[in-house]
Amino acid sequence: QKLYREYSQQFLTLFLEWDISVQETKEEEEKLANLFREQQKIFQAERIVQSQRLKKIVNLYDQILKCMEVLEKDHEHFLSDEQSEIRQEMAILQDKIIVEALHNELQMLQKFFLSLLF
């Protein structure tokens, strides 16, 4: 019986230590599971934030492209208008030059005819 009590006592002690160890392991496992869930929630929240930021970036990029297209069309219209205006000014200047040349020719003819008369 003494031997039985000694072994029983040792077995009981080891069993209690093992049970405490199992309980501690379960507690640590629960803590780790909670930490994992918290990390998972944080990660999901960050994914949502990053997704929203990416959408904003894409929207801004689309707006920039649209603005660039509008700006390019405006620039083309501006250039076209300027070229048209320059052509008109050149036509007016050509007409002035022709009128002035004709006027000079008329003056020369007048002088020539007057010199013939006098």
TrEMBL record:
Location of the XLR/SYCP3/FAM9 domain: 1-96
Domain of life: Eukaryota
Record-stated family: Belongs to the XLR/SYCP3 family.
PANTHER family associated with the record: XLR/SCP3/FAM9, XLR_SYCP3_FAM9 DOMAIN-CONTAINING PROTEIN
Name of this chain's protein: XLR/SYCP3/FAM9 domain-containing protein
